[in-house]
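User: Need the bound-state model for iron/sulfur cluster:
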Amino acid sequence: MWTYHPELLATPVPRYTSYPTAADFGPLEPGTIERAVAGASGDISLYLHIPFCEQICFYCGCNTAVSGKRARVEAYLAALHQEIATVGSLLPQDARVRRIAFGGGSPNAILTGEFLGLVDALHAHMPLFAPEWSIELDPRSLTAEWSGVLASTGITRASMGVQTFAAHCQKAIGREQSLTMICRSTDWLRKGGVTSLNFDLMYGLPHQSEADLEDSLEMTRKLGADRIAVFGYAHVPHLVPRQTMIREADLPGAAARFTMASEAHRILTAGGYRAIGFDHFALPHDPMARAAQQGTLRRNFQGFTDDPSEVLIGMGASAIHGFPGLLAQNEKHTATYRQLSEAGRLSASHGIVRSAEDQRRGAVIEALLCQGEAVIPEDLLAAVSDRLARFTDEGLASLRGHHLAIAPAGLPYARVIAALFDGYRAAAPRKFSSAI
Ligand code: SF4
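Assistant: Bound-state model below.
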């Protein structure tokens, strides 16, 4: 369905979960994050990072470690409790927490009692206003007990890391999980009250064939996932050392990856899913599909989102904060994070103050990725006209006056087209992966 133009995909581009991207972060002045949190009025969202997993997958680029050392987990959670109290004490009276997301790592790598302790701390210290709760889960460490935990917390949205159902691919990426395990986990989540269930899948995995991917998509559909994310595996061992466990020679080539992405789009849209941007799909009843329909879809550090809040406060090591005028990242090293948090200090010392120009360019990039169209200011259009012509000439995008629209055939090139408006991108292309 899509036409492969390798030359247009040759330059690695960011995923644009923020603009500027985390690659453009630098040191912040002391007190910056405290001032931002203290000024965060109105509806806000919280993200809590749990950087532990029972087993580490070879492909994973997340900030996470094995959960086996209990003392380490307990010390981290103590620091996270302290950070919840510190953030809660800084928030102004009129702040309202409307969304809470637990991610990682795998939030279910900690004990259920520890998880409920965090939920209690949020209730005690944060101005919760009937928030929407969501969680990322690893089926390998999920137990029936978690079903009750989700129900008692009120978690209605869950995302499960599945990646592939093909046993030979699972072995090659260090993530072995049987079909029975996935079915059982799905059952527990539904019984626990999850109404929006996402499966993360991947293409471009070692030894993966088109048939393997089709089979995984079909299984996911049969299990009734409300949302499906189909990410291309990004092989960047120079940035993610654990990926050296995966042999480059075992990976599908660029053309095969493109075909897989194209097939995933064809199969899922034919199967009743609505395409959300370039790599997400949702059934029409799902809030993500409704946001896409209504033109309210956004991008934040978790990817595509229906969250309308302008403020996302991240808690935990390496968690990222997003404010209209500031992006900031907590200390990545857990030991340093713990020290700062235990001293009652917020650890985000890196980030970027978003200038008016950043916000202007960021709005264009977000609109192109989420709505597939944007009105481009005159000066930005003039600066990219030569490079944009490569896409309009191929029918991948259309330009009428200042209105730029990505054509259905241009969906796999959306990130590359959006990157034309990125004022930072001349430097360090090796920090990113292929758009497909
Ligand atoms: S379970 Fe998820 S976060 Fe943990 S190592 Fe695997 S991919 Fe990474």
